[in-house]
Amino acid sequence: MSKLGTLGARLYRGEVGYDFVGKRKIWYGISILITITAIVGLAVRGLTMGIEFQGGAVFTTPKTSATSAQAEDAAQSASGHDAIAQKLGDGTIRITIGGVDTAKSDQIKTELAKDLKVQANDINADLVGPSWGETIAKKAWTGLIIFMILVVIYLAIAFEWRMAVAALVALIHDLTITVGIYALVGFEVTPGTVIGLLTILGYSLYDTVVVFDGLKEGQKGITKQTRFTYSEMANKSLNGTLVRSINTTVVALLPVAGLLFIGGGVLGAGMLNDISLSLFVGLAAGAYSSIFIATPLVADLKETMPEMKALKKRVLAKRAAAAAKGETEEQQDAAPLDEDDESETAGAVVGQRRQPSRNNRGKRR
Hints:
It contains 12 helices and 6 strands. It is α+β, with helices and mostly antiparallel strands.
């Protein structure tokens, strides 16, 4: 068995673990810092909206020796608007000019052909009107809002409202980071970007639901025992699904990294950047948020409940009494279960199970 597989089995059995929930203030601080950085980047640089959202034109030149910088200068001079040029792998150049009057496309093509030393008829032009772009933008926002509402309703029904709130916070965190990185990097926001965002929100939700399912099982009968607080139970459930979340994320990131770094970077297929960057950043942020934000936030919300506060007091009182007797943690675990501790908390505490003693079998005849 591989070392990672062995670690996963030990995490599941509760033999090893990391106190993710106990150190939640550190994770909250890191997340707030990253989110503020993303918001500042978004406010300062803004998003580079594709022509699908703001209207404009995309010109694709034939193979040319001109550089992308030269193409940008030529396009800005011909149109009077900002332009973005991408050198593609086959030597052609894709020039995007946002907000340009589509009636000027022929004039722009002529001037581009002159500056780039190509035939005007060989330049392909795709035009998008501003009204159509506005409609697409509204539909994108509508789809995102509907997705968020359905997620909250589903989680509230399948689990509880506290978990739905925690999942929503994690999703907003992932979305903010991804959009902020788009602003900092300067990639165009296209319909492919929106598709990528919706996809990574689904992946993030998947990881979160896996952890929440463990929490749902673990909290059954938790108030009938005095060994673990809710936060400790949540941390054990999180450790039990940790390796599964990491494996799922890594396997999903590998092909996306191929799209982003090889397809978009090496081969020059710039259109792949639109969706691959959102997928890559969103998948990584989704795995982070499900571990470091969603579960600790659920623990914080649950421990505001009166019964969980009472449970924590009982647990701490029992530990204080055991410490006064000089008992170690191992001795406490080896002690016979209290009457209340015999309740079913197998999901709450992932550890060594007590095997029932076998009855003596009948003697052979």
